[in-house]
Amino acid sequence: MKVVLADLKGREGFVSKDTVAGGYGSRFRTFSRTTAWVHRFKSQYHYTPSVHLAYLAAILADAGHEVVSTDGSPVEADLAIVLSSLVDYRHETEWADTMRARGTRVGFVGLTASKMPQLFVEHADFIVSGEPEAAATRLARGEPLSGICESEPIGDLDSLPFPRWDLVAQKSRSGIRMSPRPIGGGFPLLSSRGCPEFCTYCPHRILAPYRTRSVRNIVDEIEQMCRLNRRPYIIFRDPLFTESRERVLEFCKQVRDRDLRIRFECETRLDRLDEDVLREMHGVGLRIISFGVESVSPEVLRRVGRRVTPEAHQQQIIEQCREIGIATCGFFILGFLTDDWTSVMATIEFAKDLGPTFAQFKLLTPYPGTPLWKQMEPRIIETDWEKFDGFTPTFEHPALSGDQLKFLLGAAYTHFYVRPSYLANVMRIHNRLVRGWVDRLDERVAARINRWEAGLMRQVAC
Questions:
Q1: Are residues 259 and 399 in the same domain?
Q2: Using one digit for the tens of pLDDT, what is the confidence trace for 37-51?
Q3: Residue 175 clears pLDDT 60, i.e. is over it
Q4: Whole-angstrom distance, CA of residue 235 vs CA of residue 50
Q5: Based on the domain organization, do 149 and 217 belong to the same domain?
Q6: 206 shares a domain with 121
């Protein structure tokens, strides 16, 4: 059987799928001069191929099936498996209709298809509900799938074959290097599934329970990558890579013992890091750490089930990363129900003071299946599911209008990135005289931005 795996390129803006927002995906559109630059940066560096489809490619190929992939063009095949998302589902269902009209059976996989099958059922021969590997194994053995097919999570993650990146569409890597992450992205790797935390807004834990792979199995996969790719860049897609300090240190030991030359990045919580762990990870290739800050307000965080990391510890870890040579990326969410204009601006100022190398700001988005969705469902006013993209207001906020939320989102990117001190931090300029001049220049730039924003604020108020 010939199978085509489809991870379709989004039609508008920069679309990320697969493990982003748990699998619902995100779509970043330009809405200001600063976000135009951010959009270009994301398009250049943030593309990653689908790790879930790479697992399916391995399962199907091991069973003797012919596997090809596409990011848009229809392909002659007996079966098409489409990676689903919320932010681009219309494109995905239209593509599926085209393939079915050509006589190809079509199935959908992913979080969105699992939690919102009504969006896909009229466009598919089958929908896999749950993590897709178990259903794919049945399919590979010749079992026909139809309707909604339950797929139980694999308990022993070490039993899965390693992803087949040679069978999944890759993006060409060329251009000017401006980030520790290479142009075109890297290879995603899942060392665990699910998430052990209980944040009410996060969809990472709603599909399956938290499980981990053994360190040996993870490093075996990396060793295979190193045989096929010179010094691969690996993007660990676990929401909490350093949950276990001992596991991370053992990972570093095994990478070092096998003399594997890699570069990698991971996402975690700052309270799961210390200087010794940072130095060990950097020594075996760590180049970027991403982490959620979300809000400066401990009370806001407690209300959404997120454990609070002391501010002093956050600042200490980021400063240690800067000294060691690890880039940092902080995630911030604007528009929590208890937020107002003042508290959102306080979070933006905190992002600047904290000083990560990069910052990503999103609007609070209630995703179907999360506890936050149940809490906020009466407030939801957006009826277009594709606008649940992380950057579009979707609910009636008690203190801020949709226009105000969008204005504050744009202001966050402008205030964080459009300042001389940001460039000085990136360039690691620490000379006291130069920094004094930069700080004075910051004040002049900030004053100019504030005057410009004042004019826009009058338009928003009107």
A1: yes
A2: 899 888 888 888 999
A3: no
A4: 12
A5: no
A6: no
CATH value at residue 315: 3.20.20.70
The answer to whether residue 165 sits within a structural domain is no
Question: Which band of pLDDT confidence, cut at 50, 70 and 90, is reported for residue 452?
Answer: low
On average, the pLDDT of the chain sits at 93
Position 64 in a domain: yes
User: Which of 156, 171, 191 is the last residue before a domain boundary?
Assistant: 156
Domain match, 152 and 228 both = no
Q: What span, in angstroms and rounded, lies between the C-alpha atoms of 15 and 453?
A: 28
Residue 380: CB partners within 8 Å, gap ≥ 6?
Answer: 366, 394, 395, 396
Lowest average pLDDT, out of 119-123, 177-181, 351-355, 367-371, goes to 177-181
431 is a domain residue: no
CA–CA distance, 265 with 219 (Å, rounded to integer): 15
Alpha-carbon dihedral of residues 83, 85, 87, 91, nearest 10 degrees? 40
Q: Which residue has the higher pLDDT, 55 or 448?
A: 55
Report pLDDT digits (tens) over 86-132.
999 999 999 999 999 999 999 999 999 999 999 999 999 999 999 99
The Cβ of residue 153 has, within 10 Å, a number of other Cβ atoms equal to 15
Domain that holds residue 308: 181-418
Tokens of 347: 């979070």
Same-domain pairing of 149 and 263: no
| Cα 257–Cα 261–Cα 267 angle in degrees, nearest 5 | 95
Q: Which two tokens stand for residue 145?
A: 């799938």
The reply to whether 440 falls in a domain is no
Q: Look at residue 176 in the predicted model and tell me its pLDDT.
A: 46
- 259 and 395 together in one domain: yes
* Mean pLDDT calculated for residue range 324-337: 97
Given a contact cutoff of 8 angstroms between Cβ atoms, the answer to whether 133 and 162 are in contact is no
Average pLDDT over residues 361-365: 98
Mean pLDDT of 73-86: 96
**Overall domain count for the chain:** 2
102 with 15, same domain? yes
- With a CB cutoff of 8 Å and minimum separation 6, the contacts of 430 are none
Q: Are residues 246 and 194 in the same domain?
A: yes
